[in-house]
Amino acid sequence: MALDDRKLLVLATIVEEYIRSGEPVGSKTILNSSKINVSSATVRNDMAALEKMGLLEQPHTSAGRIPTYLGYRLYIERLMRPYVLSAKEKHEIDEQLTRNGITAENVVDNAVQVLSDLTQLTVVNTNNMPHFSVITRVEVIPAGRRLYALLIITSSGSIKNKICRLEFDLTNEQLGFFAEFVNKNLKGINIDELTPAMLQNLAIALGSYMISLSPLLYAVYELSEEFSHDNVNIRGEQRLLEAGNMDSVEIVRFLNEKQELARLLSEAFSGIKVIFGKENETFSITNSSMVVSPYRIGEAQGGSLGIIGPLRLDYAKVIPYMQYFSDSVTKMLSDILHEEHETK
Predict the structure, then answer these.
(1) Tell me: the pLDDT tens digits for 36-67?
(2) Per the structure, how many domains does the chain have?
(3) What count of other Cβ atoms lies within 10 Å of the Cβ of residue 50?
(4) Given its phi and psi angles, is residue 142 left (phi above 0), alpha (psi -120 to 50 degrees) or beta?
(5) What pLDDT score was predicted for residue 134?
């Protein structure tokens, strides 16, 4: 069955009216809301045809129609009129992305928070920045009897710390030696370079201090592993729970599955991707949608941003916002990385 211009206009009108009102859309509403100049009977025939194509469905007898997943997807790909951000909006977003200092970690964290506040939706992200970061400082601080706090700071602005309990107290000489040793051998290396093989070589290089200081060295390695794992951040979870028409148990279960969420976000290699709940096995929240976009650092993928909301999402506005955020984060992170290489 052919999809002529009028049927496409009927579909677009139903999607936009349903997003706005949340109520099934009938022929009278379509005629009042569009430039279609035909009879109600003709519009109803078009609606019936769109239903047969799987683009619309009728939730109740004698009710209007609502879009199906397929109808939403066709609307997004072919019919949607994207919102255009003003120069003022773009300037304000860029300013908020760089508040609290221009570091890679600040830019990404700010993007997640600002995007959630701007759209009033739940925002998630994965951050691969540690793979591009180098260790800038390692500190060990006495924290009590046989307790020592380890601190690692990276070029991306990330900080990890860990409390280590040893079997004996270390002398000031041992602590001084360790601080000098790790900074001499680890400062300036990429997080990913600290492998088990390198750890073993460093332990041997401790010489007579190997027995006393190896536990601290291993703790440094454990902290580096924390940097290397996919880091999933979620902001505005409450907004998803308050959105209505979604199962709160499904929401909580999905958001707690961080590895599955990271894998879903990593599937967006380029451009905007829209995923509908239950249409994808991993994304298991009924009546929901996720808009995902990657951001890059130079030629490599730096991570992904994702907006989660109801199926009745204002895609025409959310998608342009997502595109601008991912483009801005990409530019800022690439500039930061370039500056780091210039200063080396």
Answers:
(1) 889 999 999 999 999 999 999 998 877 799 99
(2) 3
(3) 24
(4) beta
(5) 81
Predicted confidence band of residue 145 (pLDDT cuts 50, 70, 90): confident
Residue 1 lies in a domain: no
Residue bearing the bigger pLDDT, 320 or 301: 320
pLDDT in tens, 193-234: 888 899 899 999 999 889 889 999 998 888 887 776 657 889
Q: What is the DSSP letter of 282?
A: S
Residues 122 and 144 in one domain: no
Domain co-membership, 143 together with 201: yes
Whether residues 241 and 99 fall in one domain? yes
DSSP reduced 3-state for 120? coil
Looking at residue 257, its pLDDT comes to: 86
Does residue 35 lie within any of the structural domains?
Answer: yes
Sequence-distant (6+) residues with CB within 8 A of 81 are 316
CB atoms within 10 A of CB 177: 18
User: CA–CA separation, 206 vs 134, rounded Å?
Assistant: 22
Tokens of 51: 């239903």
The arithmetic mean of pLDDT across residues 126-141, rounded, is 79
d(CA 291, CA 278): 15
Q: Is 1 buried (19+), middle (13-18) or exposed (0-12) by CB count in 10 A?
A: exposed
Which tokens hold the place of 35? 């430039």
We report the CATH number of the domain holding residue 53 as: 1.10.10.10
